[in-house]
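Saturday, quiet lab. Running sequence design on the structure tokens for the scaffold JK sent over.
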């Protein structure tokens, strides 16, 4: 049923026919019969093909089908309606009635699906009144809650709030789970006034809150940075007989720490056992994080040790909090010790923590110490994150340690990571800055063997290095290779080659380079032109310099202040 159909409309004449001969009546009987048969079949089995009946189906016929089969066989009826091709589609009342029938059969997930299609197919329709009128005895108790959840799932928070408030006022309030979902969504959105309005409606409607409700409300107060009111609210709830759980206390602890009220947080932590709620791993971790953020590392470490002594096993988050605090203070020895303890405890998710420790070593320039730490960790089977490799390689290159960076790149490959072009370029550049042209070329060859194609920056770095070392012919060879690979040289490469040949006294080759770039690539580099004229004026006769100037003019170069000064200086020298 995927193609649009044209309906054969009912007429006065067909309505006068006997029931057995009226096609629009007969089609309802046939569809209802097939749906009853489908109810006994396997859900995965395709329904009977009703394509030839579609032209006789309209809103009235669909309503008749829903009234006939929707109560006794709601699920096949829903599937039938959702499979109809355009322009046929179920109306809001059809889907509301089916949602009621499905909920009455305890098929709540399918009732939720029916309401979801109602909201999606009819986005401008106010679903609540239709739902309230879906059954003469009133809607199933779960339906308004399901509607609120559907609206939240469609990111319609305002409509979900309105539906909940109106349903509560109409005597059909959503259940506690739906109210909890609404309160949590309002808290996340920072709409605290509306949250308390929803809470008041929940109370007026007699919906009994549960522990999750109170935890959401306490968290909302803390999110609104009103931890003091949250404490008062908690005391009020305890007077009413509600026993807060560890989640409630942890929410309060986080609120106090977020506002920098560590004294209150530590006091609450200490009284938790006396209220029958011993602190858990999360409680300790929250306080450790708060202490680390105000540079109270010794107290944070004592909290960590206290946690272990109480029989709790630190998880990756607890370790990470304390290790991060040590790294931020530059106490890298303690950070490394705790990291090895973490690895030895068998925790698998150490990637983030390792990244923090490596970044700390990079920040404080302890690069070789970091390498000595990474080596044994790899033997323990710890995989260093790609980002950490990249950061450490970059730091080693900045510190002019290309061989160490190259070794680290090999470790990275052994750990299953694929080096990027940027990483290779960093190492090539570092070798070149260290005047290690051979090693830089070896890195370029390794790039190609790993299907990492060198780019213009790679070649420019190599060419500049060769020219600086007085090996401009080798630099020219690298440029030829670059062009053959499909890349175009730029002004920087032109300037490096021309200046290199000038420095070596090979003016003919330098002039050829200037001419080559101007004619073949339309690159007229003023730095190259100036360097060539300056060298010629310093080492050749005035006639040769003027002849060179004429050849440059023919290539499209325009004399500038520097070239003019070079010619004047050359004339003065020859006249002297």
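Result came back. Writing it out in full:
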């Amino acid at each position: 049923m995927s193609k649009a159909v044209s309906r054969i409309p009912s007429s006065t004449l067909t309505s006068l026919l006997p029931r057995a001969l009226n096609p629009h009546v007969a089609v309802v009987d046939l569809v209802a019969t097939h749906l009853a048969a489908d109810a006994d079949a396997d859900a995965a089995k395709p329904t009977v093909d009703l394509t030839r009946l579609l032209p006789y189906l309209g809103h009235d016929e669909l309503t008749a089908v829903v009234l006939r089969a929707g109560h006794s066989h709601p699920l096949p009826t829903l599937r039938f309606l959702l499979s109809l091709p355009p322009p046929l589609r179920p109306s809001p009342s059809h889907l509301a009635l089916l949602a009621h029938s499905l909920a009455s059969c305890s098929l709540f997930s399918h009732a939720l699906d029916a309401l979801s299609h109602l909201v999606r197919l009819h986005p401008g329709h106010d679903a609540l009144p239709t739902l309230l009128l879906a059954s003469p005895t009133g809607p199933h108790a779960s339906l308004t809650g399901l509607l609120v959840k559907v609206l939240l799932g469609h990111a319609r928070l305002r409509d979900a709030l309105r539906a909940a408030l109106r349903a509560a006022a109409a005597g059909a309030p959503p259940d506690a789970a739906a109210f909890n979902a609404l309160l949590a969504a309002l808290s996340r959105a920072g709409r605290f006034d509306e949250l308390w309005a929803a809470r008041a409606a929940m109370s007026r409607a007699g919906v009994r809150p549960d522990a999750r409700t109170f935890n959401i409300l306490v968290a909302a107060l803390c999110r609104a940075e009103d931890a003091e009111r949250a404490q008062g609210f908690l005391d009020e709830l305890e007077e009413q007989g509600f026993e807060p759980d560890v989640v409630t206390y942890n929410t309060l602890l986080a609120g106090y720490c977020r506002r920098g009220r560590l004294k209150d947080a530590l006091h609450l932590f200490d009284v938790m056992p006396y209220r029958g709620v011993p602190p858990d791993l999360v409680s300790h971790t929250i306080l450790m994080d708060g202490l680390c953020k105000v540079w109270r590392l010794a107290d944070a470490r004592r909290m960590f040790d206290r946690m272990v002594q109480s029989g709790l096993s630190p998880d990756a988050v607890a370790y990470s909090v304390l290790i991060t605090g040590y790294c931020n203070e530059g106490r890298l020895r303690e950070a490394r010790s705790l990291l090895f303890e973490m690895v030895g405890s068998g925790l698998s998710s150490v990637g983030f923590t390792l990244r923090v420790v490596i970044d700390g070593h990079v920040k404080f320039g302890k690069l070789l110490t970091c390498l000595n730490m990474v080596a044994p960790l790899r033997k323990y089977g710890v995989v260093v994150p790609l980002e950490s490799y990249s950061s450490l390689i970059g730091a080693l290159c900045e510190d002019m340690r290309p061989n160490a960076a190259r070794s680290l790149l090999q470790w990275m490959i052994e750990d299953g990571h694929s080096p990027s072009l940027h990483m290779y370029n960093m190492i090539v550049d570092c070798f070149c800055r260290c005047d290690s042209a051979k090693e830089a070329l070896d890195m370029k060859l390794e790039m190609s063997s790993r299907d990492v194609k060198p780019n213009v920056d790679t070649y420019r770095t190599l060419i500049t290095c060769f020219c600086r070392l007085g090996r401009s012919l080798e630099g020219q060879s690298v440029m030829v290779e670059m062009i053959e690979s499909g890349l175009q040289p730029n002004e920087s490469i032109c300037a490096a080659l021309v200046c290199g040949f000038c420095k070596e006294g090979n003016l003919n080759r330098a002039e050829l380079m200037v001419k080559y770039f101007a004619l073949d690539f339309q690159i007229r580099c003023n730095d190259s032109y100036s360097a060539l004229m300056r060298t010629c004026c310093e080492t050749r006769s005035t006639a040769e310099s003027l002849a060179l100037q004429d050849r440059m003019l023919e290539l499209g170069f325009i004399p500038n202040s520097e070239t003019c000064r070079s010619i004047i200086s050359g004339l003065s020298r020859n006249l002297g």
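Notes for JK: The mean pLDDT is 84. The radius of gyration is 39 Å. Ask whether to fix the surface positions before the next round.
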